Amino acid sequence: MNTQLNGHTNISNGVLASPLAMKHVNGIHEVEVYSVAFNANLDPSKLTVTQTDTPKPLPEPSSLVFGQTMTDHMLVMSFDPETGWTVPVIQPYQPLQLDPASSCFQYCPNVFEGMKAYLGPDGEPRLFRPDLNMRRMELSVDRVALPPIDGHALLKLIKKLVIVDKRWIPSQSGYSLYIRPTIIGTRPALGVAASSHALLYVIMSPTGPYFPTGPKPVSLLAVHENVRSWPGGTGGFKLGLNYAPAFEPQRRAAEKGYMQILWLLGHEGERRITEAGQMNFFAVVKREDGDLDLVTPPLDGTILPGVTRNSVLALAASHSPLTPLPNITPSQRINTHEKPITMSDLTMWYSSGLLLEVFCVGTAVTVASVGRIGYEGKDMILADESRMALGVVAGAISEKIIAIQEGRFQWEGWSVPCKE
């Protein structure tokens, strides 16, 4: 018989033991395991679709602000420990109804993903490496002991939702439909325990450039007084609880004239760079032999394993006379490194003229060059923040990734059609 202990679920042949119940004894919450078994898998074949009778007018793409305009429909299903996942439903976009005691409000078992849909040359919607998003979501769900999901099944449902709201995908290059799959704990009780109930929903939003300044370089303020993540923590997972603690430091950085935080970890002299805002960090360093080193922090548990990060490393490593990146000499090699970067390293590269550019990547932003990094009262000036331009390497990678995302360039099956 399967059981769930200490917030960890044991699964066998797709059958899951029902999660923890709680009982209150002498003022102490104690764990009580019960063992009703059920099939935990989502079933895309049972999807029902109810389309809106009042579709909204499409906004002008130039007016879009990231995440503020939602499409007509959403995907919803819920999980109960006795019956498993409900029939998935695509329905008109609408508010959720939740019990005030739901776990998501009290203990933050909230997981989400960030994906995008693009229109291909044939006018059909495409997703960019969605299998990586689904795998990451499965791992994040497990990290906070939520009822498990089948990423393969969820992806089928997401494709259906994208097709239903296909008209919302902007046709301009560089624009897309942002997709936010979310799963939250909805156990209606205040006991400190893993949530035995969950709600899974997917909403979507048409989007253009993430930063209102467009492709101008961003500025970073390096801080060590606060940390985004720590060894053994949750920085390597896509969890809502990772974001709220960053808001106050971000506000202080903005007051000092910086757009994002450069998160540092460790003691003086060994302050390692982790992420920039919610983006992965890259540095381009000139080598003595004329080639380039592309360096990013390793996935040590404090770094989110970004889909764009993974793609940047693969495309940079593939640069050669046979598969060149645009506007980079085909014979110039780009050596990729996943290794710790300290502020001492960055300062040394900068002062010696070896630091050619810094950029950040993520699903929302794709690629953003860094123009300035503030650290201990001094600025490293890397690019003109007033210019609408990316660095040479950042620009080449951005151009290649967007061409793949939009289906204009085929590469390793990364661009996935939504049609069956």
Strand segment count: 26
The CATH superfamily of the largest domain turns out to be: D-amino Acid Aminotransferase, subunit A, domain 2
- The CATH architecture classification of the largest domain is Alpha-Beta Barrel
The structural domain count equals 2
Q: Which descriptor suits the 3D outline? A: globular
For the CA atoms, what is the radius of gyration? 23 Å
What is the tally of helical segments?
7
Helix content estimate: 10-25%
CATH topology of the largest domain: D-amino Acid Aminotransferase, Chain A, domain 2
- The proportion of residues in beta strands is 25-35%
Class inferred from helices and paired strands: alpha+beta
Major sheet attributes? 10 strands, mixed
Structure description:
With 420 residues, the protein is of the alpha+beta class. It folds into 2 domains: 42-207, D-amino Acid Aminotransferase, Chain A, domain 1 (2-Layer Sandwich), CATH 3.30.470.10; 218-409, D-amino Acid Aminotransferase, Chain A, domain 2. It contains 7 helices and 26 strands. The strands form 5 sheets. Strands 8, 9, 10, 11, 12, 13, 14, 15, 16 and 26 form a 10-stranded mixed beta sheet that branches. A 6-stranded mixed β-barrel has the order 17-18-19-20-23-24, surrounded by 4 helices. α2 crosses α3. The longest helix has 14 residues, at 130-143. The radius of gyration is 23 Å and the shape is globular. Mean pLDDT is 90; it is low at 1-39.
